[in-house]
Amino acid sequence: MIEQKTFTLAPRPRGYHIITREVLTQLGDLPNVGFLHLFIQHTSAAITINEAADPDVLLDFESVFNHVVPENLPFLVHTMEGPDDMPAHIKAAMIGHSITVPITGGRLNLGTWQGLYLCEFRNRAGGRRLVGTIYG
């Protein structure tokens, strides 16, 4: 069985956000065994899996990535959409646009402290579209 759902996450401010519950709500029942492939249809946001227990991790991610790829770099050419746009594209490329998670016993088989992240790099972004493909 292969099932695919496209859905839009609620808009969020710039930063890193745990979206595990929202994604599971959108997907509904999962098969007993399989895989979830999740893809974000945007070039200025990313998705990943990381620490979901301590909210300081979310803040540290934001700080590190803003240090590595700051806004207003004088050599950037793509600046028409604002100073946060090209850095957002670079950060999204660094983290990635898709993840795959095993499904075991009808649940995402994440590690004890893991959660799904939306990495929002724009200052004023709308809702982000995800495509969830369930193989099971």
Q: Could you walk me through the main structural features you see in this protein, from its secondary elements to its overall organization?
A:
With 136 residues, this protein is of the alpha+beta class. The chain has one domain (2-135): Jelly Rolls. The protein has helices at 20-27, 56-68, 85-95, and strands spanning 2-8, 15-18, 33-40, 45-51, 98-104, 107-108, 114-120, 129-135. A hairpin with a 2-residue loop joins strand 5 and strand 6. It is elongated. The chain starts with a strand and ends with a strand. This is Secondary thiamine-phosphate synthase enzyme. It holds the Pfam family YjbQ. Belongs to the UPF0047 family.
**On the 0-100 scale, what is the average pLDDT?**
97
CATH classification class: Mainly Beta
CATH topology: Jelly Rolls
Over all CA atoms, what is the radius of gyration?
16 Å
Which structural category do the helix and sheet elements fall into? alpha+beta
Largest sheet entry: 5 strands, antiparallel
Tally of extended strands?
Answer: 8
The sequence of SSEs as H and E is: EEHEEHHEEEE
Gross geometry: elongated
Straight-line N-to-C gap:
5 Å
CATH architecture annotation name: Sandwich
What share of the residues lie within helices? 10-25%
